[in-house]
Design a protein that fits this description.
single chain; 676 residues; two-stranded antiparallel sheet; 12 strands; elongated
Length: 676
């Protein structure tokens, strides 16, 4: 049986190696025109740029770089490196682009040192070192085409149409300038449209795109990307790095220019250069013919990318206030049936948020007249409706319905390519640049809770018939979640399966054997690591362009280049402790974990009775604890993973305990995870 558990888990994990189709071959000459601050609002206000829309493949450009803000220096250095670079120092405003003196970019070593200081691993100069014949025009282009020592060749301080058209320029990077914030912007947009016309006259594949914000404190948003002429009608730009129609990122520009010919360039410090952070740009989707509709769609997309984070704060504050008021009323009026029911409903509404955060995207709220207000109302409404429907159908087992809803929604979402993640409050979208596809840490946390709760319930139903059958049920329910979370093109979450796999294996073991030993814990840990490592290594054996996160991480480990990644992840994980809230969360999580392993010390009789009421309660709570602990240690947001898991699981548990006035009396239908 022990072998069977690990073999089944490994087989489930091994389905995570899927390749993606490569983009079509580009035209001979690639001409990139980068403009700092070019927004879709600018395209709408400029007749010259609006006229280009129906002649172009269109998309939105994510200009996120390694630093907190993207100034022109950051954007151009990111194109130079092919991975996110850090160019801005401690200046209060975006610094001017450096001059070129004696054939070399002034202050180049400062930018090299900055990559080492911030552990970016960005090999600035990679674009210039990888191919000859890349011409540069303008100060920003000098940064992009400079070689690793800061020297520039085939560079001109201003645009030269004749030089661009010459055979000497095989490809070109053109700095279209920094748009002025207000006065003079209209005239600057006219010059941009004229620059595009001149570049088109030289022939080739022309990409007009925003490359950065124009000022340090400019509104952060995705910028314009127009590629012309289109091959088969005007469609939508995408790349394998975003896997989203109508969305590309800065590092895709480098990959597009280099066409798979990236040189190996070591960045500053002890880090080694990783693979390109982007993929070649290509077009996909249906042909568009209505420029006004396309522009409105891109402006709506910006709302979809920008609104979730600020609205999340408002939703969280509302739910927290409602929960505090309802629990306060219950503590004052313990004998009041309505006070108890209100508190239970508030707790389940809190858990219902984990349904609403994904289903809200189905309402297409970003196209409503007031997108932010619409998202707020939709999220609160679905949260309350989920709680009410679960209570109506399942009574005090309402949380089982909420867990099932989250599980089913996320499985379907993953199979469809995670459309519900883009614009979700749980996704670090294109503005933040955290993840463009798949499941993020917050989504993983919600899926993990739902999967383990359902696995425990399923096992409880089968336990009297056969412990082995119950253990297989845990592997089935948990295994589906592991595959959904980890499969490239679905969840594509490497850190998630590292956390969920040992939790599922441990839960299956405890279900089968009824107890756990240190040897079993060690075996589960080793088995989980070996299974995940095998998948990562198999993915690594594929060509670099076809690898997922698994293969890329394995490549860094095998090539001894994982140090900078681990340092950045550790810094991000520890950032939560920069505020008192992080320490408060840590204390709360430690208390929750202690309640799992030392239930007799919990000062609530209802919980102690509940813990012993069914055989599968302990394995489920232990699995949740292990998953939260492993997820926190192995993901770059640290204890936030466990915090989100607790935010979903704890309200459901408390609601159940409050719904049982006499916890000593246990219904024959009670089950483990229904009670977790």
């Amino acid at each position: 049986m022990r072998r069977a558990l690990f073999v089944i888990a490994a087989a489930l994990l091994c389905t995570t190696g899927t390749a993606f189709a490569q983009p079509s071959t580009l035209m001979a000459k690639v001409v990139v025109i980068g403009v700092s601050g070019l927004t879709w609002g600018d395209v709408k206000s400029s007749p010259g740029l609006t006229a280009l829309v129906n002649q172009s493949n269109v998309g939105s450009m994510s200009v996120k770089t390694a630093g907190p803000r993207t100034c022109p220096v950051d954007g151009w250095l990111t194109i130079s490196a092919g991975s996110r670079a850090w160019g801005t120092g401690t200046e209060q405003e975006c610094a001017d682009l450096p001059a070129v003196t004696g054939g070399k970019v002034e202050g180049w070593q400062t930018y090299v040192d900055r990559q080492a200081q911030h552990h970016t691993g960005a090999p600035i100069g990679r674009l210039g070192a990888s191919r000859d014949g890349i011409c540069g025009f303008g100060p920003g282009a000098a940064l992009a085409v400079a070689k690793p020592d800061g020297s520039v060749a085939d560079w001109s301080p201003a645009f030269d149409a004749a030089k661009l058209a010459s055979p000497a320029c095989q490809d070109a990077i053109v700095d279209g300038g920094v748009l002025p914030p207000r006065e003079g912007r209209t005239e600057a947009l006219l010059k941009v449209a004229d620059l595009v016309a001149k570049a088109r006259a030289a022939g080739g594949w022309v990409l007009l795109t925003g490359v950065s914000q124009e000022k340090l404190l400019s509104h952060q948003q995705t910028l314009v990307a127009l590629q012309l002429p289109p091959d088969n009608g005007a469609r939508w730009l995408t790349s394998d790095s975003t896997r989203r129609p109508g969305l590309i990122q800065l590092t895709d520009i480098t990959a597009t220019v280099l066409r798979g010919q990236a040189a190996s360039v070591d960045p500053a410090g002890e880090e080694k250069a990783g693979p390109l952070g982007g993929s070649e740009i290509h077009a996909t989707g249906d042909v568009h013919t209505n420029a006004a509709a396309v522009i409105d769609d891109r402006l709506d997309a910006n709302q979809r990318y920008e609104q979730p984070r600020p609205v999340l704060k408002a939703v969280a504050a509302t739910l927290a206030a409602a929960l505090a008021l309802s629990l306060g009323w219950f503590l004052i009026r313990r004998n009041s049936l309505w006070a108890r029911r209100t508190a239970i409903f508030a707790l389940l509404t809190q858990a219902g948020f984990f349904v609403a955060v994904f289903l809200s995207t189905a309402t297409v709220w970003w196209r409503w007249p007031s997108p932010g207000l619409a998202l707020y109302g939709v999220t609160i409404g679905i949260s309350a409706a989920s709680a009410a429907l679960s209570l109506l159908l399942l009574k005090r087992y309402a949380y089982l319905g909420l867990s099932l809803a989250v599980y089913v929604v996320l499985v379907i979402d993953a199979v469809l390519g995670t459309p519900m993640q883009l614009g979700s409050m749980f996704a670090d979208g294109p503005v933040i640049g955290g993840r463009f596809y798949g499941f993020g840490n917050s989504t993983f946390a919600a899926l993990a809770v739902a999967a383990l709760v359902l696995a425990g319930w399923a096992a409880q139903q089968l336990l009297d018939r056969s412990r082995a059958l119950a253990a297989l049920a845990v592997l089935a329910v948990g295994g589906i979640a592991i595959v959904v979370d980890g499969k490239p093109g679905w969840g594509t979450d490497f850190g998630g399966i590292l956390g969920l796999t040992p939790a599922v294996l441990l839960m299956a073991w405890m279900t089968w054997r009824g107890r756990v030993s240190w040897r079993a814990l060690l075996g589960v840990a080793v088995g989980g690591v070996l299974a995940v490592s095998a998948v990562a290594y198999l993915d690594y054996l594929r060509p670099p362009a076809q690898r997922s996160h698994f293969g890329n991480f394995a490549a860094r480990v095998i090539e001894g280049d994982v140090g900078d990644v681990l340092v950045r992840k550790l810094q991000a994980a520890l950032a939560v402790f920069h505020s008192p809230a992080g320490w408060i969360l840590l204390v709360a999580l430690v208390l929750c974990m202690l309640a799992t392993v030392l239930p007799e010390r919990v000062p609530f009789a209802s919980y102690r009775t509940f813990y012993l009421s069914r055989p599968m309660i302990r394995p489920t709570l232990v699995a949740l604890t292990v998953c939260g602990l492993a997820g926190s240690l192995l993901n770059d947001v640290g204890i936030i993973v466990a915090g989100i898991m607790g935010g979903f699981a704890v309200p459901m548990l408390v609601a159940h305990l409050m719904g049982v006035p006499r916890p000593a009396t246990v219904s024959p239908e009670s089950h483990l995870v229904q009670e977790s």
